[in-house]
Specification:
Blueprint (H helix, E strand, L loop, with lengths): L29 E10 H4 L2 E4 L5 E4 L6 H5 L4 E2 L3 E3 L2 E7 L6 E7 L5 E7 L12 E2 L5 E4 L4 E9 L12 E2 L4 E10 L1 E8 L2 E6 L12 E6 L9 E10 L12 E8 L4 E7 L7 E9 L1
Parallel strand pairs: 8-12, 13-17
Antiparallel strand pairs: 1-20, 2-3, 4-6, 5-6, 6-7, 7-8, 9-10, 10-11, 11-13, 14-15, 15-16, 16-17, 18-19, 19-20
């Protein structure tokens, strides 16, 4: 369901455009190009771009009743590949599994349940599809040295054709730890950008950084190591000063070259989530 963005005065804050620092090796940097807002309950968990340029948002009110009844009480940042919508669900802290729901272009939904491996956290913060739509990347909460990789439900022929069990394929081992990743998306076959809600400044100099993960080659069904660097701190601008910001989902639209990242403001301003847009320069 498409959510319409509305500008809310209480959250407008500063709107001057900004730039992230230039990357080593002459890589282009990201330039902030605009800010919009969406209601947090209906879109504060994440977003994904459709082929027609519109945006799909996810929030707590988007969880279907039948999935709530089954215990899936949290939906993460979504992704869209070839018209299929991928949603990441988790249940209570005591749950022993997590679930990815895939909705076909015709509106049929299939559920793929992953039984937790030993030591795996219950969190299911996001779904990110590789550009070839064969692999699904997801992540856990807290400090982690990995991202999880699954065969893409329904689109990868190794998965059941109508829902069922989903086993982890392998992992992306990170060359340095990350913390509280809320969403990732592929920019190229070998590069992801990820929004971190880490406010400690202990792993990277920036507070709530946007991270870049570079892979030595495209995902191919085997283990791989990702090189992590921090690009810049996600904006934390609001007229509300009591409480904490929260970085949420991130989306890259390859057709327009637009990167979007969500940040929920603190206090009463949390009713609307800021959606920041960037372009490479």
């Amino acid at each position: 369901m498409k959510r319409h963005l509305t500008v809310l005065g209480c959250l407008s804050g500063a709107v001057a455009l900004g730039t992230g620092p230039a990357l080593a090796g002459g890589d282009p940097h990201w330039v902030e190009t605009g800010t919009a807002y969406t209601d947090t309950l209906g879109g504060g968990q994440g977003l994904a771009g459709r082929a027609d340029g519109s945006l799909l948002y996810r929030g707590l009110t988007d969880i279907p009743l039948d999935l709530r009844v089954k215990g899936w009480n949290h939906v993460g940042a979504p992704d869209i590949a070839r018209g299929y919508v991928f949603d990441a669900y988790q249940g209570a802290d005591t749950a022993t599994s997590k679930m990815f729901a895939v909705t076909t272009p015709a509106g049929k939904r299939y559920e793929y349940v992953h039984a937790l491996n030993p030591g795996e956290k219950v969190n299911n913060s996001f779904a990110a599809l590789s550009p070839d739509a064969q692999w699904l990347v997801s992540g856990e909460w807290g400090e982690q040295n990995r991202l999880q990789v699954f065969p893409a439900p329904l689109l990868n022929p190794s998965t059941p054709s109508a829902g069922g069990a989903l086993k982890e394929a392998w992992q992306i081992t990170l060359d340095k730890p990350v913390r509280d990743i809320q969403g990732c998306d592929f920019v190229t076959d070998t590069r992801l950008v990820c929004a971190s809600n880490d406010a400690t400044g202990t792993l990277f100099p920036e507070i709530r950084p946007l991270l870049q993960v570079d892979l030595p080659h495209r995902l191919d069904g085997g283990p791989v190591t990702g090189e992590v660097r921090s690009l810049f701190a996600l904006p934390q601008r609001s007229v509300c000063t009591q409480g904490s910001f929260e970085a949420e989902g991130v989306d890259y639209d390859a057709s327009s070259g637009t990167l979007r990242a969500e940040v929920i403001p603190p206090g009463v301003c949390a009713v609307a989530t800021a959606v920041y847009s960037y372009r490479q320069a």
